[in-house]
Design a protein that fits this description.
3-stranded antiparallel beta sheet; about 400 residues; mainly alpha; 17 helices
Length: about 400
């Protein structure tokens, strides 16, 4: 299959990693590239897979270098793998598990790298949700079993929402389960909190439950808002595509409204630092900031503040509850059930894909003049990054306006 035939934008990050391990590295090796050395962008172009870098940047907020790190290509200057968690005991046991995979199970380097990346994602998400990734300490005492299962379930709820396919979710569960089993075999863990997690999810279903909200659904939600807080909630989820935890902890210091590129900056996100363009809703966000800033009791800077929380802001579960309360008021259902906040993020993603498709359709004429059957060639090779960004945002803004105005 040539690069032009690959539907890059339809692949999840996990699927891109798997495609790298099974397809791209095979072609690199066949072309004579030494896989012990970090491939370059030119190496990727030489084997016909340059479309990968565009998809990483536009759909996963990730550089090619960051992607290579996630599949096992570390800079020689790094001391060990960047697990990005503070718990030393957990880091040591994760490293011990990886060494076991390398020495005793005879797995390929790329397979080990992929498993390590999944474990790192799990540990970082656990840390984000529960304050510290002390995975080992919490499975030492059997009395902690019930509480730890609940904590682990919360992590897999997030993975269930964010990963694109059931197969990806099952691979994450398999790798995490193997890690806990490793701890059990060494008499470190008294129990494995993932041993029956699969029974909680219907991941073998043929029809995936990835239904987004429709434009009409968003219109009804937005029409039913009764406060600036509810308005911002719908915009954050549906117009900006934020995750519910990102919405809950949104702070004024992340917001850049001045200039030609208004955006929200995230120092820590699932795939590292990144920005979210404020294609729509800039004025409403500015009004919300002005209103909170004028409060007599002082404002801590969070867009969704909470005096009941030690963090100073609401939590992701509260975002979910408020969103569903609004949906019930608006009479919005998806397949007969109250929609969840992640369906707002899915609306953003499908809207973005539709805007991208419309842009490519408008470039077909130029592509024909250039003798190419693929408009994406024009998008990537004949337009500057500034022009591409401008056109994408124009088409996206039009589609969001249809839903919000």
């Amino acid at each position: 299959m040539s690069s032009e035939q690959i539907r890059w934008s339809h692949k999840s990050l996990e699927e891109l990693r798997e495609f790298w391990n099974t397809k791209i590295e095979f072609e690199l090796r066949r072309a004579g590239h030494d896989l012990e050395e970090k491939p370059s962008y030119q190496d990727l172009l030489d084997v016909g897979y340059g479309g990968l870098t565009y998809t990483l940047r536009e759909h996963h907020e990730m550089t090619f270098s960051e992607f290579l790190e996630s599949v096992g290509y570390l800079d020689e200057s790094e001391e060990g793998y960047p697990w990005s968690i503070d718990d030393e005991t957990t880091t040591e046991e994760l490293e011990s598990f990886i060494r076991t995979l390398e020495r005793r199970q005879g797995l390929a380097d790329t397979t080990v790298a992929t498993k390590r990346s999944r474990l790192a994602t799990y540990a970082q998400l656990y840390d984000e949700l529960h304050g510290q990734a002390n995975l080992v300490d919490r499975v030492v005492d059997a009395a902690e079993r019930a509480a730890e299962i609940r904590r682990v379930l919360a992590v897999f709820d997030e993975l269930d929402a964010d990963l694109g396919t059931d197969a990806s979710k099952q691979r994450y569960l398999s790798d995490v389960n193997q890690f806990y089993s490793h701890l059990e075999r060494r008499a470190i863990a008294a129990f494995n909190p993932t041993s029956r997690i699969s029974e909680e999810y219907n991941w073998n279903r043929e029809e995936k439950d990835n239904q987004p909200l429709s434009s009409a659904d968003v219109q009804r939600l937005y029409g039913a808002v009764e406060s600036s807080e509810e308005e911002l909630l719908v915009l954050a989820l549906c117009a900006w595509g934020l995750r519910r935890n990102e919405v809950a902890s949104l702070h004024v210091s992340q917001v850049v409204l001045k200039g030609e590129d208004p955006h929200i900056y995230f120092e820590e996100r699932k795939n590292g630092p990144g920005t979210v363009a404020l294609v729509y809703g800039r004025e409403q966000l500015a009004d919300r900031i002005d209103m909170l800033g004028a409060r007599d009791d002082g404002w801590n800077g969070y867009l969704f503040p909470s005096t009941a929380s030690s963090s100073g802001h609401i939590v992701g579960e509260t975002v979910q509850l408020r969103f569903q309360r609004l949906a019930n008021r608006a009479g919005v259902t998806v397949r007969g059930e109250t929609p969840t906040s992640k369906m707002g993020r899915r609306f953003w993603y499908t809207t973005y894909m539709d805007a991208q498709k419309q842009l490519l359709e408008n470039l077909d004429v130029i592509a024909g003049d250039q003798g190419s059957s693929d408009a994406s060639v024009v998008l990537e090779n004949y337009l500057s990054e500034t022009e591409r960004r401008k056109y994408r945002r124009e088409f996206m803004r039009e589609r969001l306006a249809d839903a919000f105005e």
